[in-house]
């Protein structure tokens, strides 16, 4: 299954400055698809995240201050960690900006 | 770029919109009329889409970006090929409507020929309804707008807000209703951020930013309109103790601040008082704009407040700022102009098209991504599911100490803000204590008296090599915090028992380095609060800070 990730707000620094990634997920089976919770673990465990995992993932979810968007909507509208990924979903991890 | 070059933008969703960012002063009226006819033909050929706010916002973005690029060119003489490449008085914004209802072009009208005055047509909300005054509130007096922060975003939104509120002295019937534009900031104008804080000038370095901003806005409005907006300076640090009293005198608040605790405080105070909050933030290449806790859209649940979206503050290590993370100068100006634009329908119609949505600008993508946000959270300690007015506890804030709430120690007086409190105070040492111990008086200090090598151990600069290249202490060794190679391997064992003093730019990374070195077995490691920024303040005023 192919999923697009986009990373911004400075988070891309943890991803070797990659702002967008398009990768296949070896997650789920024919009967069950992967959830956002599995995706977040996969990003860390598969080495897609290059450094300081604690700045991305805490307690099975993203750390406070990261807004997750699923197809242009706040992931809370889509079930957060339980959202079941579909092919070609666009997932965005975006760090809050505080500057002005 | 030849003289007469202009930037022309056509936004299909906002019919008959034209932006000439660099209008040639020599261009005659006939040519202009011909261009108008061409433009009208172009537009008539296209589909007559109804006005839509996303397109209006896009138009604003393009306009703001054109202006921002013009500002940038002003800072880069090599790009500045001719006098027409910058936005200057006489540049033109024309919005031709089918039915003219509101004169939009706000400037010294005596300088603008009558035919060049712009008009804006029907409101996007009700067909054939006239635009309500952008000056007079339903109460009968002027609107009262408060902008928190006169920095980079303030430099984008304050001129736009002042222009909007001042209106057109030839047209306006609301002369008696003088709007108020309040500005909150406790900082002073500094050289290092003038690239983005375009309201301020080199000549006003050291002046309070609120006073500098008012001087700039007064000059911008000119003699005929400067009395049409009441500009109010609030030179203070916004705190839980003063926020409610201050906000109580305003109708809408724009968050142009630069740190997380202040952003939580502003949101909570707006919720407690039932005020809509236009929030703008920017770092590096990106900016965010939204309206928190705004008027509820007719067919949607109540929009969230800042706490609904970010119930738990981010770790201090991940908090971003323009000073520490850098920002492209035009980005905050762009985002600030967008925030001012978003405030307009909030004032004139009590509606907030951006409420419940977050507009994300990424220069490198480049696109504006507008995303739907979650509704107000029923268990939110501030707004309690968007209860209005006043949220969970009308007139009261849900927290007393916002720095503590965000896990940050209150910045010591006179120290450049150093938010992180990772290392206990006993493991930190101030320059004032450190230097006499080595026989050096803090100030005045001739650098020649700095010990060539510290008696035991030494000073380690843990900033990245790019920042060390700007300048470091004469005897400091470089050990970038991001690179721990060479500590375990090449170093003699006794290095781990020698005293080391760690410095970085402001005293955050040095704390992380203390922890990292302790984990590697170093037993006597301290860091200096305020780092090299503090060094420049107490020891060497010529040290390059950035």
From TrEMBL, chain A:
Matches recorded under InterPro entries: Beta-grasp_dom_sf, Mopterin_synth/thiamin_S_b, Urm1
Pfam family for this entry, one: Urm1
Keyword Magnesium: no
GO cellular component: cytosol
Localization, UniProt: Cytoplasm
Cross-link (Glycyl lysine isopeptide (Gly-Lys) (interchain with K-? in acceptor proteins)): 100
Keyword Ribonucleoprotein listed: no
One GO BP annotation of this record: protein urmylation
Functional pathway: tRNA modification; 5-methoxycarbonylmethyl-2-thiouridine-tRNA biosynthesis
Family, per entry: Belongs to the URM1 family.
The protein's role, per its UniProt record: Acts as a sulfur carrier required for 2-thiolation of mcm(5)S(2)U at tRNA wobble positions of cytosolic tRNA(Lys), tRNA(Glu) and tRNA(Gln). Serves as sulfur donor in tRNA 2-thiolation reaction by being thiocarboxylated (-COSH) at its C-terminus by the MOCS3 homolog UBA4. The sulfur is then transferred to tRNA to form 2-thiolation of mcm(5)S(2)U. Prior mcm(5) tRNA modification by the elongator complex is required for 2-thiolation. Also acts as a ubiquitin-like protein (UBL) that is covalently conjugated via an isopeptide bond to lysine residues of target proteins such as AHP1.
HAMAP family, A to Z: Urm1
Protein name (record): Ubiquitin-related modifier 1
Source organism per UniProt: Caulochytrium protostelioides
UniProtKB/TrEMBL annotation, chain B:
Start and end residues of each stretch annotated as Disordered: 22-50
Domain Rhodanese: 459-544
SMART domains, alphabetized: RHOD
GO cellular component: cytoplasm
GO molecular function: nucleotidyltransferase activity; thiosulfate-cyanide sulfurtransferase activity; URM1 activating enzyme activity
PANTHER family referenced in this protein's UniProt entry, alphabetically: ADENYLYLTRANSFERASE AND SULFURTRANSFERASE MOCS3 (PTHR10953:SF102), UBIQUITIN-ACTIVATING ENZYME E1 (PTHR10953)
Record protein name field: Rhodanese domain-containing protein
Biological source species: Caulochytrium protostelioides
UniProt lineage: Eukaryota, Fungi, Fungi incertae sedis, Chytridiomycota, Chytridiomycota incertae sedis
């Amino acid at each position: 299954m192919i999923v697009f990730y986009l990373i911004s707000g400075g988070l891309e620094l943890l991803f070797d400055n990659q702002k967008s990634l398009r990768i296949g997920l070896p997650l789920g089976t024919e009967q069950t698809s992967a959830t956002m919770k599995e995706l977040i673990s996969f990003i860390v465990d598969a080495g897609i995240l290059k450094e300081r995992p604690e700045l991305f993932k805490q307690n099975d979810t993203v750390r406070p201050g990261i807004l997750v968007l699923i197809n242009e909507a706040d992931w809370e509208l889509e079930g957060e960690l339980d959202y079941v990924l579909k092919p070609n979903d666009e997932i965005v991890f975006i760090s809050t900006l505080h500057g002005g | 770029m030849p003289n007469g070059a202009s930037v022309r933008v056509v936004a299909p969703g906002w019919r008959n919109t034209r932006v000439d960012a660099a209008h040639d002063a020599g261009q005659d009226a006939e040519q202009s009329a011909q261009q108008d006819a061409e433009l009208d033909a172009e537009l008539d050929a296209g589909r007559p889409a109804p006005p839509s706010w996303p397109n209006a916002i896009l138009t604003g973005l393009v306009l703001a970006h054109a202006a921002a690029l013009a500002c940038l060119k002003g800072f880069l003489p090599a790009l500045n090929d001719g006098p027409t490449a910058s936005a200057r008085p006489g540049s033109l914004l024309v919005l031709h409507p089918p039915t003219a209802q509101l004169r939009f072009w706000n400037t010294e009208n005596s300088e603008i020929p009558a035919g060049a005055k712009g008009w804006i047509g029907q409101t996007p909300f009700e067909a054939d309804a006239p635009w309500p005054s952008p000056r007079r509130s339903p109460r009968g007096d002027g609107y009262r707008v408060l902008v928190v922060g006169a920095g980079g975003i303030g430099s984008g939104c304050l001129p736009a807000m002042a222009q909007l509120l001042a209106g057109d002295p030839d047209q306006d019937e609301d002369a008696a209703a003088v709007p108020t534009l309040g500005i909150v900031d406790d900082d002073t104008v500094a050289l290092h951020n003038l690239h983005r804080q375009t309201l301020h000038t080199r000549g006003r370095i050291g002046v309070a930013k609120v006073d500098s901003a008012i001087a700039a806005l007064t000059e911008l409005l000119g003699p005929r309109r400067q009395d049409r907006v009441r500009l109010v300076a609030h030179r203070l640090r916004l705190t839980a103790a003063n926020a409610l009293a201050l906000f109580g005198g305003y109708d809408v608040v724009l968050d142009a601040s630069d740190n997380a605790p202040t952003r939580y405080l502003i949101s909570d105070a707006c919720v407690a008082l039932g005020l809509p909050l236009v929030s703008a933030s920017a770092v590096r290449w990106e900016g965010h704009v939204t309206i928190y806790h705004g008027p509820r859209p007719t067919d949607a649940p109540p929009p969230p407040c800042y706490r609904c979206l970010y119930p738990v503050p981010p770790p201090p290590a991940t908090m971003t700022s323009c000073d520490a993370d850098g920002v492209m100068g035009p980005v905050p100006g762009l985002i600030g102009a967008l925030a001012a634009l978003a405030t307009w329908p909030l004032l004139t119609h009590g509606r907030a098209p951006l409420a419940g949505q977050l507009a994300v600008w990424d220069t490198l993508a480049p696109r504006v991504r507008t995303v739907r946000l979650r509704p107000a959270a029923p268990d939110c300690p501030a707004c309690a599911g968007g209860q209005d007015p006043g949220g969970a506890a009308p007139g009261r804030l849900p927290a007393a100490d916002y720095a503590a709430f965000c896990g940050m120690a209150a910045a010591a007086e006179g120290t450049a803000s150093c938010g992180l409190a990772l290392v206990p105070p006993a493991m930190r040492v101030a320059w004032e204590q450190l230097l006499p111990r080595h026989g050096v008086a803090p100030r005045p200090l001739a650098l020649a008296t700095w010990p060539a090598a510290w008696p035991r151990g030494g000073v380690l600069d843990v900033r990245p090599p790019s920042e060390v290249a700007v300048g470091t202490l004469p005897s400091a060794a470089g050990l970038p915090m991001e690179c721990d190679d060479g500590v375990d391997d090449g170093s003699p064992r006794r290095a781990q028992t020698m005293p080391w003093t760690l410095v970085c730019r402001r005293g955050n990374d040095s704390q992380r380095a203390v922890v990292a070195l302790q984990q590697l077995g170093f037993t006597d490691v301290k860091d200096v609060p305020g780092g090299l920024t503090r060094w420049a303040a107490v020891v060497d005023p010529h040290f390059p800070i950035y």
